[in-house]
Structures are given as structure tokens and as C-alpha cells.
């Protein structure tokens, strides 16, 4: 199911939480939604989920308008907030049973839905536990199970890994990676850029209510100056002078005892030939990476860190 967001605006007094946000996500794509705190990600997701009304603009899932018919959106778009209600005396089975019944799932259909959801979550281990006794990671598994219970074609996930320990993040990442292969259209908001990068086919970067970049991770404008991070066998200090003599090296910075970051002139078209020259005539290189092509590098380049 395709998502179309057009000129979305949402104001809270003098704060422009969303200021003309527009993007499209193709059917079956997995898109990252990143930005600083207060950038407007949660506001946009809530509008897309039919939980808030924009001051201007529209959201469409194929031909269905989320702004005109918000009551129809829960059936097609599962929204996962970053927290799960800490209800006392309610077990996971009862919690999920409530939502299954809300989507008219009963009897064999409900049991089949529970089995299907168990393929992507730890549901089998959690069904008889009270919600109040769950860890943060377990609660996120239950929250994911809730949005999957009626098998919606769209998933809107707001910081699903927020507050998780490393092991819980790995478990959640594995769940989301399997979901990404099912053909669902998924929009994921996250601050853990290294893990998000492994799952997404496109990214939207938001700051102060405006999109500063959207496209495929790793894509850069042709005019950008490539940056490369090199790790050497020898100390970084011993090769600084040698690397600085290459005419195409416009910037050089030591980032560790054996690491140096170089900035090249000429753009992507010349980068391969320039790097080949360093490999042929320069000091032995152990590891080479491109921080400017990582999602984290793009995020730092396309945002200023300013808040409203």
C-alpha cells in the first residue's frame, strides 16, 4: 500500500511542529524517519495513524484519505508508539485479545492471528505474564504484536528501540528485518541509525518540522566532497605528512591512534581513481570506510541540531 503525504502542517501555538512536509513511500518499501528530538516525527506519525488532525495538508494510503476518514485508518495502518500502557492486573493474552476482538477476530481466526504474530515476536513466552511485570524490551514485543494482530498492510513504528538494552535491540531488529520481507509498507522512526540503516531502502530526515533530506541511504549530491576513514598498521602521526601531499586531499584529520579521515576534491566521479592512487603509493591501509555515506554521516550533514 502506497503512502502519500502532501504539504502536512501542524501548529501548536507559535511552534510549527510540521511545516510543509511532503513525501511518498512506495508499496512494500521500508523507510526510515529520522530527526532530532522535537523535529516533528511523532506528530507526523500520529496524523498518519488518524490520531491527530493537521492544520493543512493530506495523507493518503492508496486512495484512502487519513485526514478525511481517520476512523478507517486503524484497519490498514498499525501504529506502534514508543511506550506501552503499564496496566495492572492485565495479562498479555487479555491485552491482545481485546485488540483482536476490536478487529472482529474470534475463535479460530483469533488463534491463527496469535500464531502468525508469534513468528515475528516473543509472544509465546509472554502470553500469561502481566503487563506490569514486563521489561521494556518485552513491552516492545507486545506492542509490536498488537499492531500485527490484524495483519495491516502498513506499519507506522515510533521509536520501537527506544530505551532497549543491546540484547533487546537485537531481538527487535531481527523481528523488524523479518517483517520487512513480508511486503508491508513500513515507516520506522528511530535514533539508532546504525541499526536502522540495515533495514531501510529510503530515509526521510526531519528537522524543526521540515524535511532536510530524503532519498536512499548512501546517496549523496554529485557536488559533495567524499570523505574516507582510513585505519593503518602504523601510527596515524607517521603518515599525516605523506597523505597531506596528495593534491586532491583537501582535508586531513586524525581521529584515532591509527585512524585518519581524509576529504577529497572532485566529487564521487573522481573518488575511485584518487583512492586507487593512495592504495598504490601510500602507506599500507588495514580498513577503509565512508562515514559520509553512512546514515549517521548523512544525518549530521543534513541537520544542525537546532530545536524550536
Arithmetic mean pLDDT: 89
Fraction in helix: 25-40%
Could you give the order of the helices and strands? EEEHEEEHHHHEHEHEEEHEEHEH
Counting copies of identical and different chains, the oligomeric state is: single chain
- Write down the Rg: 23 Å
How much of the residues is beta strand, in percent?
Answer: 25-35%
Could you give the distance between the termini?
A: 33 Å
Class based on secondary structure composition and strand pairing: alpha/beta
- CATH topology title of the largest domain: Rossmann fold
Number of distinct beta strands: 14
What is the CATH superfamily classification of the largest domain? Answer: P-loop containing nucleotide triphosphate hydrolases
Q: Note poorly predicted spans.
A: none
The biggest sheet amounts to: 6 strands, mixed
Tally of separate helices: 10
Strand order of the largest sheet: 6-7-8-3-9-10
CATH-scheme architecture of the largest domain = 3-Layer(aba) Sandwich
Shape: globular
CATH class of the largest domain: Alpha Beta
Domain tally: 2
Amino acid at each position: 500500500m502506497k503512502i502519500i503525504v502532501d504539504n502536512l502542517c501542524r501548529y501548536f501555538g507559535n511552534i510549527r511542529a510540521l511545516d510543509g512536509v511532503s513525501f511518498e513511500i512506495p508499496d512494500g518499501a521500508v523507510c526510515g524517519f529520522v530527526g532530532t528530538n522535537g523535529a516533528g516525527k511523532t506528530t507526523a506519525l500520529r496524523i498518519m495513524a488518524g490520531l491527530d488532525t493537521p492544520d493543512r495538508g493530506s495523507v493518503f494510503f492508496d486512495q484512502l484519505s487519513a485526514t478525511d476518514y481517520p476512523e478507517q485508518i486503524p484497519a490498514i495502518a498499525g501504529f506502534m508508539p514508543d511506550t506501552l500502557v503499564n496496566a495492572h492486573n492485565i495479562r498479555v493474552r487479555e491485552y491482545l485479545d481485546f485488540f483482536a476482538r476490536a478487529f472482529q477476530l474470534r475463535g479460530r481466526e483469533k488463534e491463527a492471528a496469535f500464531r502468525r504474530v508469534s513468528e515475528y515476536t516473543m509472544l509465546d513466552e509472554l502470553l500469561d505474564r502481566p503487563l506490569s511485570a514486563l521489561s521494556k524490551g518485552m513491552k516492545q514485543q507486545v506492542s509490536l504484536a498488537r499492531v500485527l494482530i490484524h495483519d495491516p498492510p502498513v506499519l507506522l513504528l515510533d521509536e520501537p528501540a527506544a530505551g532497549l538494552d543491546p540484547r533487546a535491540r537485537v531481538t527487535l531488529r531481527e523481528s523488524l528485518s523479518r517483517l520487512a520481507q513480508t511486503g508491508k509498507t513500513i515507516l520506522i522512526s528511530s535514533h539508532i541509525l546504525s541499526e536502522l540503516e540495515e533495514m531501510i531502502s529510503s530515509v526521510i530526515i526531519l528537522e524543526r518540522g521540515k524535511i532536510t533530506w530524503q532519498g536512499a541511504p548512501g546517496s549523496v549530491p554529485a557536488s559533495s566532497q567524499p570523505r574516507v576513514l582510513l585505519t593503518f598498521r602504523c601510527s596515524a602521526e607517521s603518515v599525516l605528512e605523506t597523505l597531506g601531499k596528495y593534491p586532491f586531499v583537501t582535508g586531513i584529520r586524525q581521529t584515532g591512534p591509527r585512524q585518519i579521515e581524509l576529504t577529497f576534491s572532485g566529487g564521487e566521479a573522481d573518488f575511485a581513481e584518487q583512492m586507487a592512487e593512495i592504495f598504490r603509493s601510500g602507506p599500507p591501509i588495514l580498513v577503509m570506510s565512508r562515514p559520509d555515506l553512512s546514515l549517521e554521516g548523512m544525518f549530521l550533514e543534513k541537520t544542525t541540531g537546532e530545536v524550536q
